[in-house]
Fold this protein.
Amino acid sequence: MSFFNNIFALVKNHALIWAHAAISLVALVRIFYGALRKGQGPLKARLAPELRKNSTAIHIFTVLRAVLPNLVLSKVLVKSYENTGTAFVTRAEDVIEVLDREADFAVVYGSRMRKLTDRENFSNGENFFLGMQNSAEYQHDVSIMRLIMAREDVKTIIEPLARREAERLAAEHPDRIDLPPELTTRVPAAIVRDYFGVAAPEEDKLIAWSTVLFWWLFAELAADPAVEARAKDCAQKLCACVDEAVARRKASGEKKDDLLGRALALQASRPEFTDLAIRNNLVGIIIGAIPTLSKASVCALDVLFSKPEALSGARAAAQAGDDAALGAYIFEALRFNPINPVIYRRANHDVTIAASTLRARRIKKGTMVFAANLSAMFDPLKVDDPRAFRTDRPWGDYILWGYGFHECFGAYINHAVLPVMLRPILARENLRPAGEIDGGDTPPFPQHFTVVSD
């Protein structure tokens, strides 16, 4: 009997996958036909804006999950980190497998992180934990950072700080606000200043440095020399800013309960946690904090504006002061439009994924593997009714800040800050966009997105 049950389940799963693929294929035809009719210029230029949208990627991944769930190419698409080919993994089960197999699929950021921390030559500085594999050094550095960056700080320090700043900044712009420069970069910058303990002479510059460096480290895959030149300048200035903050604090003798103060206090028992190590780790979490929270805010609002019922529900939660309910709307919106639709890793050696299945594929050593977290969050074999906007989903349905061993170090901060930062905006009546999202000179990261209300 179990044999027939297994056969029935297999047929049912394939039917479900192919039904979703058929719907997405029709949607893609409509999207591309519309782009061709409305656009001007070469075909590639007309299609590019649609291909950059996560809403289009959802349909592309849906078709791939049925036709080529694990697509392996000999072509090198990523130029910024060494690799020998490319693979796209789209089924949720296989995405999780890639991200779980730390020994087989490595993070690749170490080479650029070493450049970043070399303030003088931008060449061969020290790595920090964001770019490390699981090792004694990684465990040591992470354990120290967890000592100084306590989870209980979220409720006692970070959340109240973010709420105060968001309410103050929103009150300064009661009817019209350009979110990135006037709210969504300012709140995390305040966290960097008051909780991390690093104050830049000009906050705008700190925001710009961290945004360019996040782009260069994690999202700039074409090895554009112009972007690298900007990253070099920003790295030197951000490292100098943090070095100066460390030196000032030590010279003043001030005892302050922030991350910098805790790190310096820890030096007495952990002499290996040098000033340079403190600087490198603070630089890493600063880069991860500001652009991530700002982009996530804009991505979530962009989805809510496209779904009137969801926007109405989010407004009701915001007006009621229910951060948990509001967070459910924000995180569900980010499922449709995450800040990163794929997470990339490099194969350490020849390895097979999805073994003992019809979709099993051999991945050669050096292949850059794109584990499509956006696709995983829309896989009907893992996520119930994935096309529906629902706020009752289990947290396991979401892969918003990485996964497993290399999940974003500040994921729990993102989870707490986003609802309190966006609450005073989403509580407004008739909230609506006043224009398009503008990436300015950091295209993956919004620099302007103005919203208005009555």
